[in-house]
Amino acid sequence: MSVRGARKQYGDFVALDDVSLDIPSGSLTALLGPSGSGKSTLLRSIAGLEELDGGAVLIAGDDVTRVSPQKRDIGFVFQHYAAFKHLTVRKNVAFGLEIRKRPKSEIDDRVDQLLDIVGLTGFQTRFPAQLSGGQRQRMALARALAVDPRVLLLDEPFGALDAKVRADLRTWLRRLHDDVHVTTVLVTHDQQEALDVADRIAVMNAGRIEQVGTPRDLYDRP
Ligand code: ADP
Ligand code: ADP
Question: Which among 15, 119, 151, 176 counts the fewest CB atoms within 10 Å?
Fold first, then answer.
């Protein structure tokens, strides 16, 4: 999919200033830049949640805002994940499958598989309040992945966590992506995080993309 000439203004403030970006299928692309540079606005645009003032986000040639929300097929994880407090981990992860009325046996198998992938097998009957921050974000990822989205959008998913947990989750996200290959866009202001997990990094500043490349292209890494 691709972003073509995206423009977005809030009043006089230009949040996206003619942004174009290719997001190859199966890639893990990081949007890296300081706070206020337009990363979240771009991510929401990719999700079809922003009305742009110009340009478009194209999925297989179609404008994402013209694709019906049910067919958009996007999983979203935010920094502060809004889990259902009154539902167990298992029920939270199963949520998207249950509203799609999948058969119970399929839901059970899928949830077991997802909890295994995110390392929460022993935590099924806990409630979100009984999880650590890192466990909660892994639950959020399991829930987003449950319905097999074609695109996974992550907005500073580890931003609220301490440094050690963030580092563990980066390694884990990289492995997850190597297994599942879902096209992923990760918003971060943390250069190390982008370098550790992304195949491609788009560096944003003041509503523009300044550079795009592999970690090696951009930062001369060994
Ligand atoms: P980033 O994710 O890089 O921190 P954002 O995309 O969240 O940047 O925001 C870019 C700029 O647009 C910020 O200066 C922010 O204050 C402004 N902005 C974002 N959303 C809105 C909104 N709904 N109304 C007004 N200004 C907004
Ligand atoms: P390209 O490989 O040229 O980048 P795309 O990524 O635009 O192609 O699309 C690849 C396939 O994935 C298309 O068949 C498209 O319909 C599907 N697809 C990609 N993203 C989504 C999405 N968010 N929702 C629904 N289908 C998607």
Answer: 119
Residue 9 phi, psi dihedral angles, 5° rounding: -120, 145
Task: Count CB neighbours of 6 within 10 A.
Answer: 26
Strands in 13-22's sheet, in edge-to-edge order, are 13-22, 2-10, 54-59, 62-63
Atom number of ligand 1 nearest to Cα 33: 3
Q: What is the pLDDT along the chain (222 residues), one digit of tens a residue?
A: 999 999 999 999 999 999 999 999 999 999 999 999 999 999 999 999 899 999 999 988 889 988 887 777 888 888 776 788 999 999 999 998 998 899 999 999 999 999 998 889 999 999 999 999 889 988 998 998 898 888 999 999 888 788 888 888 888 889 888 888 899 999 999 999 999 999 999 999 999 999 999 999 988 765
The whole-model pTM stands at: 0.89
Per DSSP, the residues of 87-110 read S-HHHHHHHHHHHTT--HHHHHHH
Residue nearest ligand 2's atom 10 by CA: 60
Write down the ipTM of this complex. 0.84
